Amino acid sequence: MLRDRAEMSNVSTYLATCSAGFEIEAEKEILRLVPKAEVHSLFFKGNILIKCPSSTDLISILKENETRYIGSIIPVNKAIKISKKKSDLKRVYDEILNLGMLKKGERFVVCCKRRGKHEFTSQDVEREIGGLLEESLGAIVDLKNPAKIVTIQIFQDIAFIGVIRADEVLKKEIKIFRKYKCGERPLTRAEHKLREAIRVFNIEIKPNFRVLDLGAAPGGWTRVLAGLVDHVVSIDPADLDPSVKNLPNVTHLKCKAEDIPRNIGPFDLIVNDMNIDPVKSAKIMVKLADLLKKGSTALMTIKFITRNRKRHVADAIDILKSEYKDFKVRRLPHNRYETTICMRRA
C-alpha cells in the first residue's frame, strides 16, 4: 500500500473519509481536482487512500474547491503492519519516534481511530503512545491547543501513522450521504441479495414452508420470504419496516437470536443475515440447528471484519460442520462485502 519513507520522497499520502458506498464518487471528485493522483478504496467502507506528487498541496486544493463526497482528509507518513495484540503498540511508538518529526517542548496530541478487532481501544493507543512520547522526547501533551497531531489510523492489520501540523487536518461537510430515500435502500438491496442467493444455490422453497429469518430488520428478506411461504418468523431487536411488519404471515420477535424461545420450531428453512462477527454468527447457527428439520437448508452471510476473507469463511465452516453439511460458498454480486454459505442440516 505505502512504500517505506525513503521510497516516498516524491509522493504525499493522505487518508480521506466519504459516505459508505460513495467511494467511487469520492475518487472521481479527487481525480477531477488532482488528475495525477492515485486513489484507492480501503477495505473498510467509507475510507480511501490518496497518493499525490509531493509538489501537490491537496489540503489547499480541497479547501479552495467545493466537494460533495469528501469528509476528513489526513496526511500520513507511513504504513506499518500490526497484529491485534496490545504489545504491538510499542512498535507503533518506535515507528513514530523514527519519523523524527516531534521535538522536545512541542505541544502535541495523539489522535487514533481504530477499525477492526484488537486487544486495545483507540483510547488505549492515545494514552500509551502519548505517555511514551512525553517521557522519551520531553514533548508536551496538549489536548486543547496542540501544535502538532500524531495521527494513528488503524485498519485491522495496517496502521497509518503521521506527525502533522494541526492545520494540516481538513474536515469538510459531506453533502451526499445516501443514494436512496431513507429506508428504501436496505429493503431493496436485501431483497436482491436473497433472490440472488435462492437462484444461485437453487434453493427449493415450497408454499407450506415455515421459515426463520435471523437479523431480519428492516425486513427485506422477510418480505421476499413472506411472498413465497405460509409463515415467516422474523428475529431482530430492531423494528421491521411497517410494510413488512403488517404482513399477515409474518411474526416478529423483538429479541436477539441467542434468546429465541426453544418452542417455536421446527422450520423448513433458516436464513441468517446478522451483521455480527462470523464466528459468533456460526455459533448461533449451531445452537439453533435443532429448530431446523434434518436435511433442510440454511443460508448464512459471512460479514468480513478484516481483509482475510478466506479465514473468516474457514473459521465459520469449522464451527458449522458440527451440525451442518453439504456446504456451498459463493461471493454474490449484490453482497460484494460478504460471502454467502448455503448448507443443509446434518
The count of β-strands is 17
Order of helices and strands: EHEEHEEHEHEEEEHEHEHEEHEHEE
Quickly count the helices. Answer: 9
Distance between the amino and carboxyl termini: 43 Å
Question: In what order do the strands lie side by side in the largest sheet?
Answer: 13-12-11-14-15-17-16
Give the proportion of residues in helices.
25-40%
Share of β-strand residues: 25-35%
Given this structure, which CATH class of the largest domain is correct?
Alpha Beta
At the third CATH level, what is the topology name of the largest domain? VC0802-like
Task: Tell me the domain tally.
Answer: 2
Content-based structural category: alpha/beta
Q: If you average the pLDDT, what whole number results?
A: 89
Rg calc: 24 Å
Write the layout of secondary structure elements.
Elements: E1 11-18, H1 23-33, E2 38-41, E3 47-53, H2 58-64, E4 70-76, E5 78-81, H3 89-99, E6 107-115, H4 122-137, E7 140-141, E8 148-155, E9 158-165, E10 170-171, H5 184-200, E11 210-214, H6 220-226, E12 231-235, H7 242-245, E13 250-253, E14 267-272, H8 278-287, E15 292-303, H9 309-320, E16 324-330, E17 338-345
Parallel strand pairs: 6-7, 6-8, 11-12, 11-14, 12-13, 14-15
Antiparallel strand pairs: 1-3, 1-4, 2-3, 4-10, 5-9, 8-9, 15-17, 16-17
Helix pairs in contact: 3-4, 5-6, 8-9
